[in-house]
Amino acid sequence: MTEIAPYERRFYGLDDGEISGLHFGQNHGPVKLIFLHANGFNGLSYRRVLESLPVHSVSLDLRGHGFSRLPLPSVPLVNFHIFRDDVTAFMRRYIDGPVMIAGHSLGGAVALLANQKNSSLIRSALILDPPTLPSIWRYFFRKPRVNQWLMENFKYAKKARSRNAIFPSHEFLKAHYAKKKLFQNFVPDMLADYIEGGTRPHKDGIELCCAPEWEARVFLGHDNDIFGAAKALPQHSRYIIAAEPFASTPSTRLRIRMILGKERVEVGAGLRHLFPMEQPNFVAGHITALMKQSGLLSG
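Predicted structure:
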């Protein structure tokens, strides 16, 4: 039996820097799964989902997150195209054969957009509760004055900007976050993985790799054609929506079901938006099933 290492971090050159990828599973063979994380999180946050899979997977640190070494744009972020283009560049340079793409929240939206650009490489997709807003809202998110107003008033952007970026130690940060409602249902070690993959040394202790200001800017990047991208998903795809629906609206959920068909859309009873951290086996099971259906995994 081939020994499976916990994970291995590798760096991949893009035009303007390096993207970090964490490899799980039988990482001597071709990559079969690309996983993309939520805003403010990082590739290692999903270790408990990926480490049990019997395939070679890579979990990327998106620009401005984790240990990727990519510059941040100075202009307002109005869409997720910069992430889509990074994933596309990575795939076209470093991925040879067919793969499955999966992503959560921001990562789910980026996976949708990246699939449009890389359909010849992607055989299956798992989209986990991406932010999905009515199309008319795209007009407002692309306006600079509206973008600035939202930066100061939109709940999630405002909350992100208020975060501390520097903490005395990993232990302090873990104890601090463990008290927050957001993290209280994480399975054991998920919080530790999030902290390990999302902090770096600082003269005063440790620093968040994803700067609070960047996290806030990402929360405003909603000028994306999510519905057009959904139409391009491969046959063997699944779109899972959390029952706690702050990432979408009733109208957008209905439209996604109309595009994909109810057999490919699942509204998870009892699932919260961060369900991959709370129920990693549920996500791993969906990945395995889709990989078998698409022929990426035998058995």
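Summary: Residues 95 and 257 are 31 Å apart (CA to CA).
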